[in-house]
Amino acid sequence: MTPSGWQVIPSVLKPGRYFMQGDEACAEGAIAAGCNFFAGYPITPATEIMEQMARRLRGLEGRVFIQMEDEIGSIGALIGASWAGARAMTATSGPGLSLMLENLGYAIMTETPLVVVDIQRAGPSTGQATRPAQGDVMQARWGAGGDYELIVLAPWSVSEMYYETVRAFNLAERFRVPVILLGDEGIGHLREKLVVRAETEVYTRLKSPGAAPFGQAEVPPMPSFGEGEQLLVTGSTHNARGYRRTSEKEAQGELVERLGYKVSAHHQEIIRTEALLTDGEELDVLLIAFGFTARSAYRAAQELRREGLRAGLLRLATLWPFAEEAVRELASRARRVLVSEMNRGQVLREVQRLVSQARDYHRTDGEVITPGEIIAAAKGWCA
Amino acid sequence: MKPGTNASIKRMVRPEAFPTPFCPGCGHGILMGAILRAIDELGWDMKEMLFVSGIGCGGWIPSPHYAADTLHVTHGRPIAFATGAKLFNPKLKVVVIGGDGDIASIGGNHLIHGARRNVNMTVICANNGIYGMTGGQVTPTTPQGRRTVTTPEGNPERPFDLSQLLVAAGASYVARYSVYHVRQLITALKVALEHPGFSFVEALTSCPVQYGRRNDLSTPTAMLEYFRDTCVTIARARTMTQEQLKDKIIIGEFIS
Predict the structure, then answer these.
(1) pTM of the model
(2) How far, in Å, CA of A108 to CA of A113, rounded?
(3) The total number of structural domains that make up chain B
(4) Model ipTM?
(5) What does the pLDDT look like over A169-203, one tens digit per residue?
(6) Which domain holds residue B209?
(7) Which fold, A276-382?
């Protein structure tokens, strides 16, 4: 049996410097994290992840790659495999994520660890498949039916496409919850440096033979099929042993509260933010950004400082649960808060919930936001 | 204890899960027993088995009744979930059980691709030609002309012949029997379970409450007599004219 909990394992890739594409780095991060099951369906701009996983998993003992008939089947296969003991991942883009959402809800309800990568493209619908966008922030958070918490990460570099994929697996296993890695076409198709460390820290779900798999513990232990546990796994409301409880209000309320609490109570462990150029002083303008847009915002903050404006950046590496504390703390030291994103204000609305005077600079035409545009927006507001 | 007997298969269920939620006269109880009898007669250990089912009355046949690993999933998707579990742990003996709405309507795409892919599993479709749990709506297997709550004037659409669909899609074992023909059904289930690759058993089952009562078959016996009088074996069908075969259901092993 695989050891449970934290362990440090040698990295699969030889340690050192690589020049790699974001999508490929995501696949390599998955391999480093011990991913041994991938099911997917082709979709631009995420297909390269599936292709790399096919190269990495096909024909190897104990590892499975399968191209399914659609995205619904892909995530379905992931859930079946995860309950059979796999560390499972799929990769898609906005329209594919839409198809996965019902089964994503099933994974939340049944506390099934898995990783879904969404390399966002310009939508809605088919939109522009090869153009970058960040329009799935709310789809990722609220797309499945019902009331729930889940974890969404937003890498901003090829390096993070690798290391945040590792973190996605660890969080999924640690909290028995699906984790969405929310990339975008800009990062997915970017090529830049990746430094692979010699060792990788991985977390494996806890097991406890005979224990209730949906029990009172915040994160109950998770047995696998074939271990003689006679598991009852169901998307219906259930008790600690998995028996359907479809009309008891206590069972419904307790389950929904625990599923939400196990994520929200551990927000400090889950939320990762990066405050750049913000050291201990009053700011004329605080920029908030994530993913590809954060690269432009970082450059913009550097330029604005050169021009005498005290600018800083809060980069959201975890999008959900939302980084309320970091936003509040930094915004309290800033005269202005400017959110930049490739959508019509999805993160802006979250920020405005905490800082009512926040404004945004956004683009929705399938072009990335440049540093110059953010600089102009910040200077225009500060003038 | 003689395998396949009531006393013997009683060890294969969770006593606390009974009584079943099925309506009086439902054919699913016969099918539930037939599947257990087949497994028991093969001498298989329930600890090695995984039953995957979706939404609808048919999905409740294994979950929570069977004392084995059970995965009760979203509507229409059990074959996709089962594919993942079987590929990752090939030692699991995987059986999918679902109704015609689950398997052939919303899950139709997974059904034909499962047959094409030929992953080793057995899919049992409890085909009663109706959405029972939601109150008696038409399904892709409701015979043309039959009345349902969404076809009060009679079903204007043609039904799928599921077994023939599965033959065309590449399933490597396909059989159809009704819950009236329970001995043949058990035999077919045993062959299907032991068959390497994707095997499919279409079990015609009775829903007197939601299907029968709108179609002059409102008692459990009327529905079983309907199967007795409507089903003809493949061998017998060969001797009959197209006219004689109208409204008949052909039963037997279509691919073995």
Answers:
(1) 0.98
(2) 9
(3) 1
(4) 0.97
(5) 999 999 999 999 999 999 999 999 999 999 999 99
(6) 6-255
(7) Rossmann fold (3.40.50)
